[in-house]
Amino acid sequence: MNLGSKGFVQDVVDELKEELEQESRGLELVESNEGYELVVKSDLVEAVEHLAPHRDLNESELRTLAVTAYNAPVKQSEIVEVRGNRAYSHLKELEKRGFIDSEEEGRTKLLDVTNHFLDYFDLGSADEFAIDADQEETST
């Protein structure tokens, strides 16, 4: 982007981050694995969540959740085989957030979606998710 040195870019990022920390600002700049993201400040999320439902999970977590929900109940090892080693951290976060439950099964875990998952995505059952996903596949 021809912005100059990495130090200059970092100074600009730091300046933007500091400016966004003001109480009157609704966004904050956070560093993620992919770089930087502008996100709604946590105390304001509830006021604007209707504008972008289901965006409080990052794209990778949503993909891991989709694979898990579509195949549920499913072994954690199968999800990791499909999604890669990063799925471990995704699954840990999804369980912490109440979207999935796990129980030990030998050397792996058996994963299933929770009622919170169903409520969050306004589904009557996990089967409804699989049906919606199948219909989505055939229409694309």
Protein architecture, described:
The longest helix has 15 residues, at 6-20. Strand 1 (27-32) and strand 2 form a beta hairpin. The chain has helices spanning 6-20, 45-48, 59-71, 76-83, 87-96, 115-120, 126-139, and strands at residues 27-32, 35-40, 74-75, 100-105, 108-113. The model has no long low-confidence stretch (mean pLDDT 86). It has 140 residues and is of the alpha+beta class. The radius of gyration is 19 Å and the shape is globular. It folds into two domains: 6-51, Winged helix-like DNA-binding domain superfamily/Winged helix DNA-binding domain (Arc Repressor Mutant, subunit A, Orthogonal Bundle), CATH 1.10.10.10; 59-139, Arc Repressor Mutant, subunit A (Orthogonal Bundle), CATH 1.10.10. It contains seven helices and five strands; from the N terminus they run H-E-E-H-H-E-H-H-E-E-H-H. The strands form two sheets. The protein has a three-stranded antiparallel sheet with strand order 3-5-4.
